[in-house]
Write a structure and sequence with these properties.
This protein has 444 residues and is of the alpha/beta class. It has helices spanning 17-32, 51-59, 64-84, 89-112, 122-129, 131-146, 176-188, 214-224, 258-266, 277-283, 382-393, 421-432, and strands at residues 5-9, 41-45, 151-154, 162-163, 170-171, 192-196, 199-202, 205-208, 229-234, 255-257, 287-291, 300-303, 314-324, 338-339, 345-348, 366-374, 399-403, 410-415.
């Protein structure tokens, strides 16, 4: 379909009724060209901010009866948001029906807590942990209708085919036909499909795309149409050279290519889901990362145009990591890990609940943090790696340096603890603001 635009809204951009109404306004403005995006349009909805974490907490609760009370409050809060949006009776009926099904699912899950772990219905757990996306999709659709934009909720689990682990599945090119079959009639009728992020299907079973997987949903949908544009609406103005919460002086990266964006995400930059780049690369999807609260502010573009600079562009960090030394027994290392090329093994801890990575909790490993420099050619510079490792050693950290085993876009160090913000700011100043590195100018 020609000139299709996909708008993905993160949880902070849908944090309350006012922000949901604002998000609907951004989609409405795109038709008039105010944001210089294209039409027709698809919206991908993440769960409202904090909802997935709250659902994970409830599923991990030791007292199911108290968890049920908090679950009911969560559902009621979404119904209250719907009232604030001024939604009509039809929208309220749709959300109430979803709430009734969710309540039944939660009751079934609560009853199962008295049994052995092996008897748990893990599909039910996945259904509940991804409930937030269904709830928010209904709110977004209602907000669009209030602006006289026809909108319909689509559960991606009904048509988005994926394969792989149940909690980290990956859509493939084989999903394209199902995407088009499901969404084309609505698009041709001028309606806006509002699609749940995070959720997909594999052999008629519900699977999840991993935390942050709504980005992946958006690029998979865009790729199915041969390279539609994707706008990732979030709470920050583009992708920065470091986490701006830790390094306020972090610079905007106005343009980065697919390889750099993927590596930044893999190494802990939280703005974009790492695997979201894979569908984008397949068909040339162009991504924009924009701030929903400052839509006219400068932003980042991600596409296939090669970088014209070399050297470090960004500092990334991950704190919730397990590390095994190079000599560790293979049966003591989980299946999902990164081989650091003779320097040991890493596993990031990004489970959405204690039930989602079966078996991983049986493995040990040492708690660690990982600090990386990302940029073109960084992985081929041994002198840079030595200086990067030495920077932390001089400040009392114990660690092990490594270059990425695949590609040449990063080097890093595994540390025994996470540096505080002062150390991160000094590292950013020492390695990312030196004469000669600079940053790409905004091309927008």
């Amino acid at each position: 379909m020609k000139n299709l635009a996909v708008h993905k809204f993160g949880g902070t951009s849908l944090g309350n009724a006012e922000r949901i109404a604002h998000a609907a306004g951004l989609v409405a403005e795109s038709r008039s060209g105010a944001l210089k995006t294209k039409e027709p349009r698809i919206v991908v909805a993440s769960a409202m901010s904090g909802v997935t974490d709250e659902l994970a907490r409830l599923l991990n609760a030791d007292e199911p009866q108290w968890a049920r009370r908090d679950f009911d409050r969560l559902i009621q809060s979404h119904l209250a948001y719907l009232e604030e949006l001024g939604a009509n009776l039809e929208a309220r009926c749709e959300l109430e029906q979803l709430a009734e099904r969710a309540a039944a699912d939660f009751s079934k899950w609560s009853s199962s807590q008295t049994g052995a772990r092996s008897s748990l219905d893990f599909r039910l757990v996945r259904q509940l942990i991804s409930l937030g996306e269904l709830l928010s999709a209904h709110l977004v659709a209602a907000a669009l209708r209030e602006r006289d934009i026809p909108a319909r909720v689509f559960d991606a689990a009904d048509f988005l085919s994926a394969s792989g682990p149940f909690d980290a599945a990956m859509p493939s090119a084989a999903a394209d036909a199902g995407i088009k079959e499901a969404l084309r009639p609505q698009l041709e009728a001028g309606a806006v499909p509002v699609v749940t992020g995070f959720r997909a299907r594999a052999d008629d079973d519900l699977v999840l795309l991993g935390r942050g997987g709504s980005d992946l949903t958006a690029t998979a949908l865009a790729a199915a149409w041969g390279g539609a544009d994707v706008t990732i609406w979030t709470d920050v103005c583009g992708i920065r050279s470091a986490d701006p919460r830790c390094v306020p002086s972090a610079a905007l990266l106005a343009h980065i290519d697919y390889a750099i964006a993927s590596e930044m995400a893999r190494r802990g930059a939280g703005v974009l889901h790492r695997r979201a780049i894979e569908p984008a690369m397949r068909t040339g999807v162009r991504l924009q990362v924009r701030c929903s609260q400052q839509p006219d502010a400068a932003f980042s573009v991600i596409d296939g145009e090669p970088m014209k600079t070399s050297g470090p562009l960004a500092l990334t960090s991950m704190g919730d990591v397990r590390y095994w030394p190079a000599g560790a027994r293979k049966d003591k290392i989980p299946a999902r890990h990164e081989d650091l090329g003779g320097q040991g093994y890493l596993q990031t801890q990004n489970r959405v609940s204690r039930w989602s990575d079966l078996g991983d909790r049986e493995f040990g490993g040492n708690p660690a943090s990982v600090l990386c420099l990302v940029g073109p050619g960084v992985g081929r510079d041994p002198e840079l790696l030595e200086r990067w490792s030495g920077f932390f050693e001089e400040r009392g950290f114990r660690g092990r340096a490594f270059a990425a085993a695949e590609g040449d876009t990063s080097c890093g160090v595994v540390l025994d603890r996470m540096p505080d913000d002062t150390v991160l700011r000094r590292a950013h100043r020492a390695f990312l603001t030196r004469t000669g590195f600079g940053f790409p100018l905004n091309r927008a």
